[in-house]
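Researcher: Quick test of sequence recovery. Tokens follow.
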């Protein structure tokens, strides 16, 4: 509330425009998501972790109270994705069995750093948000890491649909999660013009050929089933 085009109203409008029923969400102020937990809102929040600032007690409390994983943003919060200060939080993720989503981009959030974090906690699913928000070579490295490190996963926001197909082929169906970073472009995030995905396509334009090329069974996995499995959203009454 009060966040204008980044608020929940815009997010719901954007999701409805693309036929998206459920979302996994994060925000740099965890308190802003206290009212959006679970099936009542169709939104499932992650605990935003700032190493050295977020307490372990807060992480545990929120994971007990309906939050479903951790969110790391090394670029915004200025730390390396393999910083050992993160270990105390990943230990909690390993204990409770929840995934960790990490912004992936050049610099502090490079896939090489994220892989090293994942290697230290092999039982924790670690998701590279955006696969790599930068040049294509970073996406190829991210895909290589996923092939070699079994607890790494890719997320597709800001990737064109052909890139998503290539990433599925380079890894496998179970390791890719559809995402959209909605709604940073406001209520028209999925159909914005000029196009917002690599300046060439909108999310709505890309969804149709992506589903057609993947086929119904694989599309169901990429667009929803993989996320439900990783975040334990199937058959969980409080989530």
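Model:
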């Amino acid at each position: 509330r009060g966040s204008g085009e980044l608020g929940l109203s815009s997010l719901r409008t954007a999701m409805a425009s693309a036929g998206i029923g459920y979302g996994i969400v994060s925000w740099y102020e965890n308190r802003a998501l206290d009212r959006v937990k679970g099936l009542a809102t169709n939104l499932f929040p992650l605990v935003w972790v700032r190493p050295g600032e977020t307490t372990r007690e807060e992480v545990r409390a929120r994971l007990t109270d309906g939050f479903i994983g951790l969110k790391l943003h090394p670029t915004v919060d200025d730390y390396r994705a393999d910083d050992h200060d993160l270990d105390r939080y990943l230990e909690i993720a390993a204990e409770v069995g929840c995934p960790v989503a990490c912004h992936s981009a050049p610099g502090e959030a490079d896939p090489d750093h994220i892989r090293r974090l994942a290697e230290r906690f092999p039982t924790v699913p670690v998701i590279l948000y955006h696969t790599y928000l930068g040049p294509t070579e970073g996406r190829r490295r991210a895909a290589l890491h996923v092939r070699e490190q079994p607890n790494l996963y890719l997320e597709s926001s800001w990737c064109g649909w052909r890139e998503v197909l290539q990433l599925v082929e380079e890894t496998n169906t179970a390791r890719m999660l559809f995402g959209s970073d909605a709604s940073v472009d406001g209520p028209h995030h999925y159909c914005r013009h000029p196009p917002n995905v690599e300046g060439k396509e909108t999310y709505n334009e890309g969804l149709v050929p992506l589903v057609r090329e993947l086929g119904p069974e694989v599309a169901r996995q990429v667009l929803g089933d993989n996320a439900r499995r990783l975040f334990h959203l199937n058959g969980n009454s409080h989530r």
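The first strand starts at residue 23 and ends at 25.
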